[in-house]
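Usage

Read records sequentially. Each one opens with the input sequence:
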Amino acid sequence: MRGPVVALAVTAVVALAAPASQAADECRGLMACISVPGPWVAIPAPARGRPSALARWQLRCPEGIVAGLDARVSDRAVDVGFVGLLGSPVNPGITTRDSVVFTGTYAGLRPIATSFRPFLGCIRGGGGGRTPTRAQAFRPGQPLSFRTRTLRLRGGSLTRATHRCRPGERLLEASHAAGFFTPEPPPAAQLALVRVTRAVRGNTIFVAASRQGVRRGVTVVVQIQALCARSPG
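and closes with the structure output:
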């Protein structure tokens, strides 16, 4: 998320059993499209007194820019959207760059853990040119960046890591999400077994995570997420 943004919706369907490498519809209608499937991203059960819960995940093209998106969800009460840049026309290279931050929100009545799986369709090239949206005083700049670090968790051990904004930036918000690389949505009981502790000191995020009890053979990662603001200069 590197500039003025507008929230856009992603059509998501309830997932059926399918191979882990099987794509969704992110490349439909695109020529020479590179499919980039993400993991199943855990959305924690809503905390007591809160009507919903959400999780974010940044997915990046190995090359080129994002031209298509899709998602699969474990529950019909999960909504998936993404953040796009302002500009005209809405187009790859204008609305999207080489990565997208997906947001999954669970709005169901039951207090359960759920998940979503994001997909990117990437194309080579830079897309169309940008026509900035007209503003009354200033044209929107790009003061915000969404920076991530991804950790792979090992069974039976605690994984620790730090993450921070780049020099010249300050930390506005810290978050994290757990991802499961499985062909089907992980059961709610498995999602709850990933434990993450997060703390912020100054401009640095400290994370400790474990996966004790998650079945062997399942790759589990935690993405540390920092919303950073560029200092004026």
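Summary fields computed downstream for this record:
- The radius of gyration is 18 Å.
- The CA atoms of residues 82 and 102 lie 4 Å apart.
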